[in-house]
Amino acid sequence: MSPEMNDFEFDRRFFCRTMPAELDDGSAPTLIVQSYYVHSDNYALRVRLTSRKNRIEMNANTDAMAVLDQYRDDFSEASVAIKGPSVGGTRYEAEREIDADIAAELIKRGGQIIIKNRFAAWIGEDGWDIDVFGGSNAPLVVAEAKRSRPVTNLIIPDFCVTEITDQARFSNDGLAGRPFSTWSADFERELAEQGPHFEQIYGHNRHESSTSEASF
Question: How far apart are CA 65 and CA 160, in angstroms?
């Protein structure tokens, strides 16, 4: 039996320097703590916990396990997901909701943990997620535009530095196996030498000011 279309996610992803202040409305972002039990060749098995009650600062000292222990009762939603490789901005993902207490115990017992804040905003005609990572992946910020179909003819806001859509090293499972802090200097040298890159296979890109296009 072939996978259902809703088992695929369509997105384009971008490296950012910072979380744009104009997209932060002051409310608590979605706090995500997730553990990867498989993270190899862009295949992944992930357990995720989320909370929208707390605003946790993300930096290199943010301890995911300490946050999980301190705010355990605030994590009310959880899921398990199976992911395949990303090809052309399309990735297989089968996800199912699970009990939050079971998810917390699984995360505490194994896997490679990632912690991040997820901010959401509308920019132009698209909903965007901006992830601000903590711990060994700080100070990484990744912006992602998602649709129910391939993401073409996209308005790319000015805070997006370069496109990383199919770069497995920037996927969350890639970051679980090899945190950003261990190769960020190499990436910065690469970016300085090669300059920003935006894929041309997804139709016509438009670059717009985030302040003029953003809304909540």
Answer: 30
Distance of alpha carbon 174 from its chain centroid, rounded?
11
CATH number at residue 172: 2.40.320.10
Residue 209 has a pLDDT of 55
pLDDT at residue 187 tops 60 = yes
Single-letter amino acid code for the residue at 89 = G
Q: Is residue 78 part of a domain?
A: yes
Give residues with Cβ within 8 angstroms of 128, minimum separation 6.
120, 121, 122, 143, 144, 145, 157
> What would the mean pLDDT of 106-123 be, rounded to a whole number?
94
What is the pLDDT, as a whole number, of residue 152? Answer: 79
Burial of 51 (0-12, 13-18, 19+ CB in 10 A): buried
Range(s) of the domain holding residue 43: 8-215
| Within-domain flag for 2 | no
Give the total number of structural domains in the chain.
1
Those residues whose C-beta lies under 8 Å from the C-beta of residue 192, and which sit 6 or more positions away, are: none
Distance of CA 198 to the CA centre of its chain: 18
Running DSSP on this structure, what letter comes out for residue 41? Answer: T
Pairing state between β 206-208 and 155-157: parallel
Is residue 197 in a domain?
A: yes
